[in-house]
Amino acid sequence: MAEPALAMPLQHLAEPAAAPRRQPWAARRYALEIRQHMTWHRQALVLAAAIGVGLLISAGILIAAGVPAGELANEFVVQTFFDGQNLRAVLFQAAPMILAGLAAAMAFRARFWNLGLEGQMIWGAIGATAVSFFELGPPSLRLPLMFAAAVAAGALWVLGPALLKLRLGVNEIISTLMLNYMAANFLLHLVYGSWKDPKDNFPYSPQFRAFERLPDLFAGVNSAIGLAAIVALLGWWLVGVSRAGLYLRFVDANPRMAHAAGVPVARVVYGAVLLSGAMAGLAGFAVAAGQEGRLTQAFYQGYGFSGILIAFLARNNPLAASVVALMVAALFVTGRSLQVFYQVPFSMVQLIQAVIVVCVAASDFFIRHRLRRVGAAA
Asked: Which CATH number is correct for 49-59+87-366, 1.10.1740, 1.10.3470, 1.20.120, 1.20.144?
């Protein structure tokens, strides 16, 4: 009777172990957790994938609007960057966009949400035009004086919201947006009033003299793009190399901890915000003295949203903002071409901008979070 009892365990040991059953998808459990760190090259990969998805969606929108699929690469790449006239138009459009993007990025780094870029651009252009209109200074110093007046006017226009934010806790989004309307209405008051050009009787100021305009670097390329490149390099040095940039990174990471560590938070925020306003004022100067040659009633429209978009896509990096601004300028130039040849409304270009912004915003979720299967190794 003992032999069967002994045979049972021997038979059991001889059998192979059963393979674990795979858990069905419906029964699996996942947890959403915050990533502690993601390497920069993985962040770049996620961001590139998000932009790629945005471009694919944008291509579908344009094809649905009547643009042939085979012509998309030709319009966006070949005709824009390999045609001399269109490339000059991109550089012409990119100069104020670079400055507007840098202005937004500098304020955002200090956690100050400056949405008043257009108002600061308006005052920058008004300051520069005032020097020309009242003939302040000798002709040889007129352009530097216009530059200085634009920088000072842009910085002063954002000083009010900065004081309200840091002294009284007033939301800077509301105050900077409201000041846009005040600046725009004052601009209309000037160009329809005392600053209206008496020769043409149109709502713009008298034309700047030759020595009051930014000269061309070479045929068709204005020196405004060189000015924007210099400002971008200075911004990179300030953010990435200088002590002020180190303080700014502390404030961006955690203002309370920065204050506890002895960082002069208020001075850092004031400096970044005033520099943001000065850059926006410089963008107004670039349009007035480099493109229009006078103060016009609607020169600023679209630059505010574009500046915020550029800063967002560049993650507030000055050099990246310059590259993104070139891409946005190319999008605007191509959009005008699509208007002419395919009757695509310009609002479609703005829709493409919005699609790309949404995709990049979604990529931030994957950079900061991850899905982990419960019970599995991290």
From this structure: 1.10.3470
